[in-house]
Structure to design on (471 residues):
């Protein structure tokens, strides 16, 4: 992890109608840093995550990625998105394509890379996430945990500068959460820049460099995980932790 | 069945149905291409294109096909002098294809658009998230899944198109309904035979077509 910032949000505001989902949020993520965003439902964590690759446009403030402000639309925005991988809560694998095609599609169609080279890289990524032997199957034939690991491989195939995870384990059966978190943990160890919205406090504790706590659209508190979980400073964070850590 | 043992009558019958087949084939290709384009316009972020697609559907879906075919003949050909072929018969044929395509494309567009609505929003989001442009997202991810979802309704539209092709008879093409009229005029004693043979031919071809599309719809369905 270096001190150089890769993702910078400054005074970002966003409204859904009258609802102020992001209230003057400023956040900087360094290259190689793993930032875990936690907070109660409706606190704006997912919106924050989705605004970084402009799946959600913001109303005011600035977001810069790798030194450049986010393009508003068109080819420039598509190019930026190809450098920021995204993993969704509901996997969103392309239902009409095989697992291998899902991983290969981006590099071939977006980056115009050669199919032979991409296939090799895709297979090694699938092997890495433990799905190599299912490459010819369709998404619906895989379990949720397997689909989510494919989604991670699909994002990695673009060789992104950063990965965004929007509640990647929230739609999974409990016994499948571990296999996805294992992959994420190993990525974090290898120095991938990651912004992870999650309710997995275990992952936050052992894999994050920094925990960011959000409530009511505001970034309330941020600290190293050990510090945050041992001594939360704000009342909102204390309240939140007391609710989730007592069971 | 004596009517059809006469070689001239048989020729009228066969020629009539060959025109129907040709009209259906050409108009299917044109209407599907046009319909997909119109559907793409209707979901595009460009307001002008959306307006154009919506206007097309509202105008042509709500105008009788007979009027559209008449307009192609009397408006485009007779008045404006639009000629699609030097051969008079072929000219009528292509004017017919034009009218059928314009009309059917409106229905194809709406079928495809309802298919687009069956594709979960997450599919397009994932496509955009790996850097696909609007066009790539639509052509590689959304339309292939939308198309598979509407194979059965597209089959119904195709069957309707095949039967609608008889309307081109009104601008002089000797397709099956005109052929039937001619045979009835000259064989007044065999009206029922002629009628049932013509109707039966449509049914014999179109019933399996319907089942074929049903089978195809199952086979191509996207598993979620």
């Amino acid at each position: 992890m270096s001190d150089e910032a890769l993702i910078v949000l400054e005074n970002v505001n966003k409204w859904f109608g009258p609802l102020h989902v992001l209230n003057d949020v400023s956040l900087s993520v360094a290259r190689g840093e793993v930032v875990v965003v936690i907070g109660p439902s409706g606190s704006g964590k997912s919106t924050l995550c989705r605004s970084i690759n402009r799946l959600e446009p913001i109303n005011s403030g600035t977001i810069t990625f790798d030194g450049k402000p986010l393009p508003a639309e068109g080819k420039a925005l598509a190019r930026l998105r190809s450098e920021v991988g995204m993993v969704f809560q509901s996997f969103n694998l392309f239902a009409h394509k095989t697992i291998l095609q899902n991983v290969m599609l981006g590099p071939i169609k977006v980056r115009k890379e050669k199919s032979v080279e991409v296939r090799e890289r895709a297979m090694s990524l699938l092997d890495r996430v433990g799905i190599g032997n299912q490459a010819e199957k369709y998404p619906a034939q895989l379990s949720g945990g397997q689909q989510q690991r494919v989604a991670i491989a699909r994002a990695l195939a673009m060789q992104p500068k950063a990965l965004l995870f929007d509640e990647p384990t929230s739609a999974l059966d409990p016994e499948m959460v571990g296999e996805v978190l294992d992959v994420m943990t190993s990525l974090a160890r290898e120095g991938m820049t990651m912004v992870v919205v999650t309710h997995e406090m275990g992952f936050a504790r052992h894999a994050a460099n920094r925990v960011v706590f959000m409530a009511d659209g505001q970034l309330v508190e941020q600290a190293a995980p050990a510090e945050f979980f041992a001594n939360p400073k704000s009342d909102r964070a204390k309240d939140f932790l007391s609710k989730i850590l007592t069971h | 069945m004596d009517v059809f043992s006469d070689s001239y009558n048989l020729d009228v019958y066969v020629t009539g149905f060959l025109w129907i087949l040709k009209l259906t084939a050409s108009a299917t290709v044109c209407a599907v291409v046009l319909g997909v384009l119109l559907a793409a316009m209707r979901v595009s972020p460009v307001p002008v294109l959306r307006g154009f697609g919506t206007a097309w559907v509202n105008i042509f879906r709500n105008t009788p096909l007979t009027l559209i075919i008449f307009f192609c003949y009397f408006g485009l050909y007779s008045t404006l002098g639009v000629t699609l072929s030097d051969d008079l018969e072929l000219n009528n044929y292509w004017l017919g294809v034009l009218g059928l395509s314009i009309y059917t494309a409106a229905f194809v567009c709406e079928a495809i658009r309802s298919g687009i609505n069956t594709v979960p929003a997450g599919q397009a989001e994932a496509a955009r998230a790996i850097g696909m442009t609007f066009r790539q997202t639509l052509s590689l991810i959304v339309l292939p899944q939308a198309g598979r979802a509407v194979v059965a309704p597209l089959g119904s539209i195709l069957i309707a198109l095949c039967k609608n092709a008889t309307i081109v008879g009104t601008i002089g093409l000797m397709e099956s309904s005109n052929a039937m009229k001619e045979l009835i005029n000259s064989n007044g004693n065999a009206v029922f035979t002629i009628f049932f043979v013509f109707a039966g031919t449509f049914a014999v071809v179109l019933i399996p077509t319907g089942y074929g599309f049903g089978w195809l719809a199952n086979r191509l369905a996207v598993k979620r």
Summary: The radius of gyration of chain A is 18 Å.
